[in-house]
């Protein structure tokens, strides 16, 4: 997969997840624990955290995030969304993927012949 395709998957997956009911459930659960400063799960990855070791506040947010993620099945839903986009990409690029697979299989056959002493 090209870096552009991978970046697209991550961007679209995060955008879909951000607007999903699971993300809303995560937000409301986290807000009920007193952490309304975060608008989405992706904010945890982009927030400016302190230098050095984690602060007590950062540890509390991390613990609340884990609890909220488990309760809302956010990770499972995120993986399902990403897998759906990956299936779409595989379907859209089946011919190219089949050609790459055939080329790799041909290389393996040639290597096996060489190793067996028949490929010279």
Describe this structure in words.
The two termini are 34 Å apart. The protein has one domain. The longest helix has 22 residues, at 94-115. By secondary structure, it is mainly α. The chain has six helices and no strands. Helix content is 76%, strand content 0%.
Keywords summarizing the entry:
single chain; 120 residues; mainly alpha; 6 helices; 76% helix; 0% strand; elongated
User: Unreliable segments (pLDDT under 50, ≥5 consecutive)?
Assistant: none
User: Can you write the helix and strand succession as a string?
Assistant: HHHHHH
Could you tell me how far the N terminus lies from the C terminus, measured between alpha carbons in angstroms? 34 Å
**Total helix count?**
6
Main sheet: strands, sense, barrel: none
Structural class, by secondary structure, is: mainly alpha
How confident overall, as mean pLDDT?
79
The percentage helix is over 70%
Number of domains: 1
Q: What share of the residues does DSSP label as strand, in percent?
A: under 5%
Radius of gyration: 22 Å
Say what oligomer this is: single chain
What would the principal axes of the Cα set say about the shape? elongated
Number of strands: 0
